[in-house]
Fold each of these.
Amino acid sequence: MILDIMPIPLTQGLFALVDGEDYEELSKYKWHAAKRGEICYAEHSYRNKGKKINILMHRMIMNASQKKCIDHINCCGLDNRKTSLRFATKSQNQANSRGMVAKLNRTSKYKGVSWHKGTAYKGKRYKGKWTAQFCKNGQLI
């Protein structure tokens, strides 16, 4: 019996989580932990005609071309269960990224609302005020 969630060993003592139905195929490859910014992903490297090729596990699972964007819904790059992955636009992927969440510095329960303790932004001074901002299509509005 195949379990619903299976771990795939990576380098650095890490593991990627995958669905049981994908485990057999993915376990045929040697995977390593690859850090991209602050997030770690599972990556397989091989050579084709002398050129090094890298493929990310989540792209293999979703059978995604290079033009397609795959988003880790829970922001965990090592959680490669299909329920944790989705096809997304660049804007959707960026809005769900850890960097965007950190950039917004959410200290309230509302997304995009943060407390400024005396900062300046675009020539305006904010002292002890709640401010709101949001991004659409990669632009701060």
Amino acid sequence: MRISLTASIFLFTVASIAHVINLEISQTISARKVAPKIIIPAVPSISIPAIPQLPKATIPPIPKFPVIPAVPKAPAQPKFPKFPTIPPAPNTPPVPNNPITKSNEQNS
């Protein structure tokens, strides 16, 4: 039975890949085997006194203070522009029909 060159190369490639996979599987299995335990000679035990445990610090709860609402600020007073003062008029004769000047003249 004759096999073509292409078929033989294909079969060789498949066989070599299978061989590599087989090697990888066998190495992982052997790596999983338990290594021999190293026996350490017994050391006389030294008793260490237990360190007394301090009680755990408890943080007291933070007291909840009532929420004080913010004091509203007083509204700003409106600032009016300062008007220039009008100087008094020079000496002018009183108006004859002015009721204010009439009452002033009668009172005096």
Amino acid sequence: MNITNLFFKNNINNNKLDCGNIYISICDFNKLQIYANPSIYIIKILIDNYNDEIIYDFEDIEINVNTCDSNQIKLYDTNNILYCEEPICRSSCPVDESASCMPSNEKPVNDINNNICVCYNGWEGNNCENKIYVDFKKEKIIKDTGFYKILLVCVGISLMFSIYYIYIVHSYILGNDIKNKVNKNKSNIFLSNSFIENFEKNNKSKNKNNQSPENTNNIININNNSSNCINEKKLSSVTFNMNKSSIITNLNKELTCEKMDEKARDEQSLAMEKMFIILKQKQKSAYSAIGSLNVLLKSMSYY
């Protein structure tokens, strides 16, 4: 069997591979070794025969030549073809037990004095003979979360409670203001009605006293010397009566029960609108404060 073409970068021609006894008709490739630089190669096989041509039905063989491992030494032969060697360390290095032999980076030579004996994890010493034990005396059972994290959590919780406290207190104060305004409006309506009733009773009693015969006789027997005073009193009484009548008419026009109820309702609705506006503002401030609290808590998680 001849390996006629081994190509991609390098070509090897007319290299024969002896398969032993020809009568066995089995060729073993387990001992086949190919030295080449790292790349992909294709082997085309031709089988020689003395008389007739032997026909075979199989595809070409593709070979991938890899580079050396990190723990191997890269060397080149006379044909400038790369080959790998396992590093050799001194006999005191317990290779494959607690250490491994690594090549030196200074020179690409497989030298015992240059190669390095590297200990596995958990071993130490000149010959990697000592085990490393972890000292758990200084380790804490519960991990310390940190002073600043606890401080930020406490500040965030206090801010949250203060925001809810302010929100509840303001809503309570606004609710009491509306109740007081409604009660004041009702008391004003009651006072205006009682004032009108008392004023009408006084006017009726005065009119009856003025129509009695005793009063008429007293008016007839008034002296001429006091006529000026009587006239002044009459004028004052007329003006007073006019003022009273105007007050009554104004109260009857403006301070009726229905109009007072409408005013009270209007004032109540205005107060409710103001209260809702203030509550919305407080709610927005509360949401913004809660948002800042969430930002603080998220920043705490990164520490």
Amino acid sequence: MKKTISINIAGLVFNIEEDGYLILKKYLDEIKAIFSSEEGVNEMLEDIEARIAELFHEKLNDSKQVITELDVTEVMEIMGRPTDYKVDGDESNDSNQNFQEENINEKTSKRLYRDEENATIGGVCAGLGHYVQVDPVIIRILFVLMVILGGSGILVYIILWAVIPEAKTTAQKLQMRGQPVNLDNIKDYVSGFSKDAKSGANRAAGSIKKSVNKSGSVISSILKILGKFIGAGFLIGGVIAIVLISIVFFGDSDLVSFTASSLGNNLNTFFDVLYPSGSSLMNFWSLFIIILFPLLAITSLGLKLLFNYKGKMKAPSLGGLIIWIVAICLFSYSSIELGMQFKSDYELEEEITNYSDSLTNLNLVINYKGNNIYNVDETEFWEVHDYFFIDDDKIEIGLPSFRVLRDSTIQDYKVTLIKISNGRTTKLALDNAKNIDYKPVFKNDSLIVPSVYSFSKDHKIRGQHVTLEIRVPLDKSVTLPETHKEMIFDIKATHSLDYDDFDHRTTWISSEGGMMCSNCILD
């Protein structure tokens, strides 16, 4: 029968034989005395005790609950003798060599841990690099490729972050590197770390890691990795957006088309025909700055989130903010001035009368320029704006609006050309309307109308528009061109229509019940 003692080592409680306890206590006291002058001695002792506790725990099972004197001796052989570090010079080296040869059979099993000391995000890639003996950069590249190609890299990283423990103690860090956990290696590791810390090489990184570890929150860790991916998104999205707006503002309109036809060389051409003379260039650059600077801010934020950039950007940011605010003020003022150019409007009507009085069916023929598609709404108002072109000296817009109405108060067709425009004053609006060039022509029983109208660039874009109104007396008709089959319209017809069958010219008769299609294909 032997006396046992209950001891606490590294937070674990063990029952140990009294003889073994005395040997262990002497062993630890010798280690403490030998390494008392070493930097980081407390951390070294904690790691040694943690390793001893781990080795003791491996020797216990259901049938064995007490640490024996033999167990203590075996653990001491694994850890190394403190007396090996008392001798200086060659004797010490010989002793250490003999000690290492004696313990060559110790199993040096490598374990997988997260390496927070060399981490970029959570230390997963650095830990995997130690485990498979591959440069962590290669593993990081593989994770990035997984994200780009399939998107699974984020989920895999988070799972590994959650299941792989962090290497916190010196013993764990040695196991992570596949090194035996003994006095020799613990001393070398702690001494090396102390020298690195003293030189300041890892001081800043260590401080950050400790603060993160103290927070210890899984949520904060997840937010950290999410911040990296959000930063990457901001960076990539910002760069793409900057390239796109550069193309829009300075590139050829064939690359970024605003309408079915060309606006000119770039957006500056459009500003030139929209804003009052002398202010178009200022507004062009103001709008560019208004859009560009927030994108630059987003891109900069992405860089900071992705690479943890802590540089001071106060002066450039403040200067950029001032320029941005000035650009907003200038553009806002000019936009208000532009709105004033549309304050008044004027409709100039011209009746077209040179057609035969005996005409009973008016044939509408459109002389097309560009690709145009009708659009008809419930007010029987036909219009399309599918053509816009800025020439050297004029602006062309198409298609004019066509309004076909039943009128029981007249005996002959009434064709009216309505020119509409805005201006800062009524006089300017009238002047803009007069400047619109649009000339429908009667030829026999046909009304030939151009598909576009135009006006001088000097008159700017001021809401110019042309409407051709055709009033049809009772029992007379109007024939529409074949292209109207693509219309979407709501017309008060006398019978149900299948609009998909409008693949030919159709004739509409003015009757008491409304406009009646005489040759539409019925179900």
